[in-house]
Each structure stands twice: as C-alpha cells, then as structure tokens.
Amino acid sequence: MSAQRLDCYAGDTRHSRILTARHARSPHMLDSIDTRLLAALQTNAQATAQELSDLLHLSASQVGRRRQRLEAEGYIQGYRARLDAARLGLRVQGFVQVHLGIHGVEHADSFAKLVQARPEITSAWTMTGDADYLLRVYCADLPALNVLIHDVLLTHPAVAKVHSQIVMDQLKQDGPLPT
Fold first, then answer.
1. What distances in angstroms separate CA 175 from CA 42, 83, 94, 178, one per listed residue?
2. Whole-angstrom Cα distance, residue 96 to residue 121?
3. At CA 83, angle to CA 82 and CA 86, rounded to 5?
4. Residue 156 pLDDT
C-alpha cells in the first residue's frame, strides 16, 4: 500500500489499525522472534509451547499465538514425520530427468497426473534447461526402478527420453529453510 494511501487514513485510528495489521502480515515483516520460532519448528515440529517459550524467552501463550498466526499466514504449511526409507525397504533413491518429445498443455497435464499417481515419485519439479522435469524417486531395488522408468515413464506418449541417476550416499538430509 502506498504511503499516500496510509496518510489519508492517518486521522482515522480504526482504519490505521486495520492497515497496520495488514501491513504487519506481509512476508517481509517477520521479526527476529518469528524467524527464530520458524527455525526451531523446522528442527523439532513437535516442540511444545513451553519448550519453545523457554527457547524464545516468551510466554507459552505468546508462542502459541505466534505459531497460529504463522500457520494462518501460510509460513507454516504443515507438519510431517521424516521416515527412514531403508527401514521401509526403499533401498534405492534416484533422480530422474524427463525430456518430453511433445509439448503442450494436454501432455503436461497428463504427465502431471501420472506423477501424482505414482507413490515412488516423492517430488517433482518442472525445470529450465535440457530436461523438462526432475523427479525424486524411491524404489525397493534396481529392478523396481527399471520398471518405473521403462514401463511407466517411457510409455507415456509425451516422454521422449529419461536420464536417471542413483544416489550412492546422501551427505545432507533435506535441511531446514534458511530463516
């Protein structure tokens, strides 16, 4: 909102409070406590309000209100458990670059539906550069990866070729976002 627009309401405290509240919720207005709270939740999403209050030097109710506000404003999109892929029998992690031979909305939508329907594809990105898509996949073994590539991906009518890379070792887990 422009400074002129704010000035025209300066005399009206009700409108000033509304405008200030809206402005305070913009993505650029996180304070240091908000960023510390986000960092703490990325490390341990199950932390109690009391644990967070001790860490942030706020009351548990203040931490709870901040957490609810950050959730409502979309900074916190959800909470998930991180599972051990190997313990679940998923011994092969790979990245698959997909190159389409046919481009168009119809083919992109069809490919997106395929990606959503396959549980072994855990992440997918559209890309710039040579490949159109990058997929992260988890499979039980190499034959399962082979089936995914040859019997699922390459049979899609828009897919021209795929290039796969198998993860040998993961040096860093998906870490928290910098805050």
1. 8, 14, 18, 9
2. 10
3. 140
4. 97
**What are the domain boundaries of the chain?**
3-72, 92-166
Q: Which residues have CB under 8 Å from 75's CB, separation 6+?
A: 27, 30, 34, 38
Torsion sign (Cα): 158, 105, 133, 94: negative
Average pLDDT of the residues in 158-179: 94
39-68 b/e (C-beta count within 10 Å ≥ 16 → b): ebbeeeeebebeebbebbebeeeebbebbe
pTM: 0.76
Please enumerate in sequence order all residues whose Cβ is within 8 A of that of 163, keeping only pairs 6 or more positions apart, or say none.
96, 97, 99, 131
pLDDT tens digits, 24-66: 445 558 999 999 999 999 999 999 999 999 999 999 999 999 9
CATH match of 92-166 with 3.40.50.300 = no
What is the pLDDT, as a whole number, of residue 133? Answer: 98
Q: How far apart are CA 85 and CA 139, in angstroms?
A: 9
Q: What per-residue confidence (pLDDT) applies to 1?
A: 37
